[in-house]
Write a structure and sequence with these properties.
The chain is mostly helical and about 290 residues long. It contains twelve helices and no strands.
Length: about 290
């Protein structure tokens, strides 16, 4: 029998594998339009979530009193997913994953303006270190005017706003409903790209593309379960295994070898986000009326 922390680690590890495999398939799907791949992500995500809706909610699963906030979450999520799909196709896998680690940095900044949170010296230093890491990773792209380096950053911005809305939605909304609305939004948006031309996939390709939605849906669920069973500070560092998988897949499938600058920048971004996570957990555990210089 596994303990709660062990279950948390297991679910986090499974989510990392799922998201990593989804990234590989998206990068592989370069012969198919982005909008068509979005359809597979959204449609098969919808199918997955219908299997986990509580039976008593099947007749009114769509009901919510926070439609406006759901809409903002979906818009931000759509911006993020389109940006990361484009980035995965145009940049080395390890580079995209390294920059994507910076999402908590932008979340910290957004929390100041949208949630009126107070951010002290430690987290501001973490933000600075993270931005230096991003600059180190993207410097070659910027110097060569490679516009695609901006897409992982757009992904981070979108995902950061998603994190803010999730904090608000999770107080009243079940995880499956939040994810289901997002999958529906992805599917609807994908249909708007039909006039730009879709490619008829072979049966084998159809099965592979469908895994984008299945891996995306089940990985989101595993991630939520991980946070349910274990503290965020304990399981979050496992996320950085994504970079290990990205380097392995990138090397063996596309002959991609991450540069020293990418690895150094990734290390700075990882250190930055770990500081942010640790300070947030520290603030939650310390009960005091004295301002915390975090």
């Amino acid at each position: 029998m596994l303990s709660k922390n062990q279950l948390g680690f297991l679910y986090m590890f499974l989510s990392i594998i799922g998201f990593s495999l989804m990234d590989v398939i998206v990068k592989w799907s370069v012969d198919y339009p982005v909008g068509q791949v979005l359809f597979f992500r959204g449609f098969f995500g919808i199918i997955f979530y219908f299997f986990i809706i509580p039976r008593e909610r099947l007749h009114d699963f769509y009901k919510t009193k926070r439609l406006g906030l759901h809409s903002l979450r979906c818009i931000a999520g759509l911006i993020a997913i389109i940006a990361i799909f484009i980035a995965l196709r145009k940049l080395p896998l390890a580079t995209v994953v390294s920059i994507s680690f910076a999402a908590p940095i932008f979340t910290t900044i957004f929390s100041i303006f949208l949630l009126s949170e107070k951010v002290g010296i430690y987290r501001w230093l973490a933000v600075l270190v993270g931005f230096i890491g991003i600059l180190i990773i993207t410097e070659p792209g910027i110097s060569n005017l490679n516009i695609y380096y901006i897409f992982p950053i757009i992904f981070c911005l979108g995902l950061s706003y998603v994190a803010i809305t999730l904090r608000q939605l999770s107080t009243t909304e079940p995880v499956w409903l939040i994810s289901l609305f997002f999958s529906i939004a992805i599917t609807f948006l994908s249909f708007l790209t039909l006039p730009f031309g879709w490619v008829m996939p072979s049966f084998n390709h159809f099965l592979i593309l469908s895994l984008v939605g299945i891996f995306g849906g089940v990985s989101n669920l595993w991630l939520s379960q991980s946070y349910k069973y274990s503290e965020v500070s304990l399981v979050t560092p496992l996320k950085y295994l994504t970079l290990v998988f990205a380097i392995i897949f990138g090397y063996f499938i596309w002959d991609e070898i991450p540069t020293i600058k990418t690895l150094i920048g990734a290390l700075l971004v990882i250190v930055s986000t770990l500081i942010i996570f640790r300070r947030e957990i520290y603030k939650k555990k310390i009960i005091t009326s004295r301002p915390i210089n975090d």
